[in-house]
Amino acid sequence: MAGVSGCELRAAGAAGQYVTGDRGDQVADDPQLVDRLLRSDDEYQVMCGAICLGTRIADPTSRSRLRELAVDDRWRVREGVVIGVQEAADADGDAVQSLTRDWAGDPNPLIARAGTAAICEPRLLRTPEAAAVAVEVCRRATAVLGALPVGASRRTPAARVLRQSLGYCWSVAVAADPQPGLAVFDALDTTDPDLAWIVKTNRTKKRMAHLL
């Protein structure tokens, strides 16, 4: 796979194929090529474009476009946003933490989900400070879900996607620094049926089970 950029390789792992081209390792740094990927009719190519765009979250225009892609109807495109933001953390962890905090509190469940899924990656949570950010992101996103009226609003596809994500993200965040993380996790309101499900589901995860 010589000549394929790092962002394309990440896309290959997530989508099972990659975008070929003559720019190779320069794909992520070529705004015109990334724009062509994003305008493609091929879902996988759009996902690749989202991954490449995610590595440029310090740029306000890229951040704004990523936000739009985070609510795309296509799940692979939404996942491309998450992967791209995670890739950006290798070069600019502070920018990723800022973005995920901001997104986690957004009233749109898909934005909140993108922020939560992006930060809740074990390799990004190797310090207590990073783990604290992930716990705060989970708390904010859980509040977004909890603010939705129980009933039809909780059954929308977007709300279900957020609920599912919170069903594992909490365990990742808490396991990164258990003592402070558990204190926040244990304070969740389990009288709310969806929050009760989130707590129950996370408790079944192997990474959490040995902490309880």
Please give a structural write-up.
The chain has 212 residues and is mainly alpha-helical. The protein folds into two domains: 1-88, no CATH class; 126-212, no CATH class. 66% of the residues lie in helices and 0% in strands. It has helices at residues 6-15, 31-38, 43-54, 60-69, 75-88, 93-104, 109-119, 128-147, 157-176, 178-185, 193-203, 206-209. Helix 1 (6-15) crosses helix 3 (43-54), helix 5 (75-88) packs across helix 7 (109-119) and helix 6 runs parallel beside helix 8 (128-147). It is globular and about 50 Å long. The termini are far apart. The model is unreliable at 1-5 and 8-25 (pLDDT under 50).
List keywords for this structure.
66% helix, 212 residues, disordered N terminus, mainly alpha, single chain, 0% strand
Number of domains: 2
Biggest sheet architecture: none
Low-pLDDT residue intervals, each spanning 5 or more residues: 1-5, 8-25
Order of helices and strands: HHHHHHHHHHHH
| Tally of DSSP β-strands | 0
Which descriptor suits the 3D outline?
Answer: globular
> Nearest-angstrom radius of gyration?
17 Å
Percent strand equals under 5%
**Global mean pLDDT:** 87
Number of helices: 12
The helical percent reads 55-70%
Alpha-beta content class: mainly alpha
End-to-end distance: 45 Å
